[in-house]
Specification:
By secondary structure, this protein is α/β, with parallel strands linked by helices. The chain is built from 14 helices and ten strands.
């Protein structure tokens, strides 16, 4: 059963209106020449907190009662969801605690604390999920970073904007971590332009959706990719159902290709992305001969430090 559809996305758009940026969709001549078709970039790197996450988080928090918001919320994240939840909590006056895995980059920790959230570290992402659940008994609302229809619907507002700005789109490339972004975007795009193809993208080592599709059910993965914001240890039954129903294909690209895409986007499009976003360019290149007349790459986040970029370039020789 599909977790959401176009009506839920439209309802979420009404909830979050005025709370998030309407990010631009821009054409790229360099990428169009590179991929052999018209290419546009959805610049969600310019969203509040540097990624798409506030869309879904505001939808989640505004879906709670005033009493629930007053008691506070807890979430799990390796980076971008933490910042989105911390920011939205501050804006709405909701006390927020984030459980994050040890090894989370220092700039993610600093940004999350800077928005006013309390941060707790756990040995792994799986243990972070378990740690967050323990707060349910204390009355906190436990918010899931991808397995929540309200989150998915809020993320889908990005897809509504894409279709409004590019009604002639033929292909959309969107990253998959746990699948909450993909589900929302696909619900909007396929609901409005049924003939459009939505391509899911993962990096090798954070390819939980590809494994789930191959196995026929969600399976647990120990994430190893540098794309830490895609590091969900599993996908949900709902996001797996969405992938089966709406995706043309799930493309898995190596970290090296994601970093090469990051460098190209920085040098030619003048946009700094994360590997979790630049992997969409690598995926589009992998199927360039199959693209239609207008491809859109969703650049879902840009929270990479220059130290990260330098280290990745040295590691992969890009």
């Amino acid at each position: 059963m599909l977790p959401i559809g176009l009506p839920e996305v439209r309802a979420a758009a009404a909830r979050v209106e005025g709370r998030v940026h309407r990010t631009p969709l821009v054409g790229s001549r360099s990428l169009s020449e590179r991929l052999g078709t018209r290419v546009s970039l959805k610049l969600e790197v310019f969203q509040k907190t540097g990624s798409f996450k506030p869309r879904g988080v505001f939808s989640q928090l505004l879906g709670l009662s005033a009493e629930e918001r007053g008691r506070g919320a807890v979430g799990v994240s390796g980076g971008n969801y933490a910042q989105g939840l911390a920011y939205a909590g501050r804006e709405l006056g909701v006390p927020v605690r984030i459980v994050m895995p040890e090894g989370t980059p220092a700039h993610y920790l600093a940004a999350t604390r800077g928005y006013g959230a309390e941060v707790e570290l756990a040995p792994s992402i799986a243990e972070a999920f378990a740690g967050a659940e323990a707060y349910r008994e204390q009355g906190l609302a436990v918010l899931h970073p991808f397995d929540d229809p309200a989150m998915m619907a809020g993320n889908g507002t990005l897809g509504l904007e894409v279709v409004e700005d590019a009604p002639d789109l033929t292909d959309v490339f969107v990253s998959i971590g746990g699948g909450g972004l993909m589900t929302g975007v696909a619900a909007a795009v396929k609901g409005l332009v049924p003939a459009a193809r939505v391509w899911g993208v993962e990096t090798l080592g954070c390819h939980a959706m590809r494994l789930a599709l191959d196995a026929g059910h969600p399976v647990e993965l120990q994430p190893t990719s540098i794309a830490k914001t895609l590091a969900a240890p599993w996908v949900s039954a709902g996001t797996l159902a969405a992938a089966r129903a709406w995706l043309e294909e799930v493309i898995v690209v190596p970290d090296e290709a994601a970093v090469a895409g990051l460098v190209f986007l920085l040098e030619r499009a003048k946009v700094l992305t994360e590997p979790a976003a630049s992997c969409t360019l690598a995926a589009a290149e992998a199927v360039r001969g199959r693209l239609g007349e207008h491809a859109v790459l969703v650049l879902c986040g840009g929270n990479a430090s220059m130290g990260d970029v330098a280290a990745w370039r040295e590691r992969f020789g890009v």
